[in-house]
Design a protein that fits this description.
Length: 111
Protein backbone atom coordinates (compact mmCIF):
# COMPACT_ATOMS: atom_id res chain seq x y z
CA UNK A 1 0.00 0.00 0.00
CA UNK A 2 1.39 3.41 -0.95
CA UNK A 3 1.46 6.57 1.17
CA UNK A 4 -1.17 7.98 -1.19
CA UNK A 5 -3.58 5.15 -0.36
CA UNK A 6 -2.86 5.26 3.38
CA UNK A 7 -3.54 8.99 3.55
CA UNK A 8 -6.94 8.68 1.89
CA UNK A 9 -8.04 5.57 3.77
CA UNK A 10 -7.08 6.84 7.22
CA UNK A 11 -6.83 10.67 7.21
CA UNK A 12 -5.72 12.41 10.39
CA UNK A 13 -8.61 14.85 10.11
CA UNK A 14 -11.75 13.16 8.75
CA UNK A 15 -13.24 16.46 7.56
CA UNK A 16 -10.27 17.50 5.38
CA UNK A 17 -8.68 15.72 2.42
CA UNK A 18 -5.12 14.45 2.62
CA UNK A 19 -4.02 17.14 0.17
CA UNK A 20 -4.83 19.85 2.71
CA UNK A 21 -2.50 18.26 5.27
CA UNK A 22 0.21 17.65 2.67
CA UNK A 23 0.18 21.25 1.48
CA UNK A 24 0.69 22.70 4.97
CA UNK A 25 3.22 20.01 5.91
CA UNK A 26 5.18 20.84 2.76
CA UNK A 27 5.21 24.54 3.62
CA UNK A 28 6.39 23.88 7.16
CA UNK A 29 9.11 21.42 6.18
CA UNK A 30 10.30 23.72 3.37
CA UNK A 31 10.60 26.66 5.76
CA UNK A 32 12.55 24.51 8.22
CA UNK A 33 14.86 23.42 5.41
CA UNK A 34 17.87 21.17 5.75
CA UNK A 35 17.85 17.40 5.57
CA UNK A 36 14.19 17.12 6.57
CA UNK A 37 13.16 19.15 3.53
CA UNK A 38 15.48 17.15 1.28
CA UNK A 39 14.08 13.80 2.43
CA UNK A 40 10.45 15.04 2.47
CA UNK A 41 10.65 16.44 -1.05
CA UNK A 42 12.49 13.38 -2.39
CA UNK A 43 9.61 11.15 -1.27
CA UNK A 44 6.63 13.49 -1.51
CA UNK A 45 7.00 15.04 -4.98
CA UNK A 46 7.40 11.70 -6.81
CA UNK A 47 4.41 10.28 -4.90
CA UNK A 48 2.22 13.17 -6.00
CA UNK A 49 3.41 13.01 -9.59
CA UNK A 50 2.81 9.25 -9.71
CA UNK A 51 -0.85 9.81 -8.77
CA UNK A 52 -1.49 12.70 -11.14
CA UNK A 53 -4.04 11.95 -13.84
CA UNK A 54 -2.55 12.13 -17.37
CA UNK A 55 -4.88 15.10 -17.98
CA UNK A 56 -3.13 16.96 -15.14
CA UNK A 57 -5.50 16.74 -12.18
CA UNK A 58 -5.56 14.83 -8.89
CA UNK A 59 -8.50 13.09 -7.30
CA UNK A 60 -8.18 11.34 -3.98
CA UNK A 61 -9.66 7.99 -3.09
CA UNK A 62 -13.35 8.48 -2.35
CA UNK A 63 -13.45 12.03 -3.75
CA UNK A 64 -16.03 13.00 -6.35
CA UNK A 65 -15.07 14.67 -9.63
CA UNK A 66 -15.87 18.36 -9.68
CA UNK A 67 -15.28 20.61 -6.67
CA UNK A 68 -13.27 18.04 -4.69
CA UNK A 69 -11.12 17.37 -7.74
CA UNK A 70 -10.44 21.10 -8.21
CA UNK A 71 -9.62 21.49 -4.51
CA UNK A 72 -7.21 18.54 -4.44
CA UNK A 73 -5.56 19.59 -7.69
CA UNK A 74 -5.05 23.13 -6.41
CA UNK A 75 -3.44 21.92 -3.17
CA UNK A 76 -1.21 19.42 -4.97
CA UNK A 77 0.00 22.12 -7.36
CA UNK A 78 0.68 24.54 -4.52
CA UNK A 79 2.57 21.87 -2.58
CA UNK A 80 4.77 21.17 -5.60
CA UNK A 81 5.58 24.87 -5.97
CA UNK A 82 6.52 25.91 -2.43
CA UNK A 83 10.12 26.63 -3.34
CA UNK A 84 9.08 28.90 -6.19
CA UNK A 85 6.41 31.10 -4.64
CA UNK A 86 6.35 31.03 -0.85
CA UNK A 87 8.02 33.78 1.17
CA UNK A 88 8.93 32.32 4.56
CA UNK A 89 6.59 33.74 7.21
CA UNK A 90 9.52 34.92 9.31
CA UNK A 91 11.14 36.90 6.46
CA UNK A 92 10.08 40.43 5.56
CA UNK A 93 9.78 41.56 2.00
CA UNK A 94 12.50 44.01 0.95
CA UNK A 95 11.07 47.36 -0.04
CA UNK A 96 12.73 49.27 -2.85
CA UNK A 97 12.59 53.02 -3.35
CA UNK A 98 11.42 54.28 -6.73
CA UNK A 99 14.23 54.75 -9.24
CA UNK A 100 13.03 58.19 -10.35
CA UNK A 101 11.34 60.69 -8.06
CA UNK A 102 9.83 64.12 -8.58
CA UNK A 103 9.12 66.95 -6.13
CA UNK A 104 5.36 66.52 -6.45
CA UNK A 105 5.31 62.69 -6.10
CA UNK A 106 2.87 61.20 -3.64
CA UNK A 107 4.36 58.40 -1.58
CA UNK A 108 2.02 55.62 -0.53
CA UNK A 109 3.12 53.21 2.17
CA UNK A 110 1.35 49.86 2.27
CA UNK A 111 1.49 48.18 5.65
Amino acid sequence: MTEWNKAWENPINKSLPATYEWYYNTQAVFQRGGSRWTSWNAAFAPMLLAHQNPEGWWLGIGQAPGEEQIYSTSLCLLALQVYYRILPTFQQRTLCAPKVTFDDDVIITIL
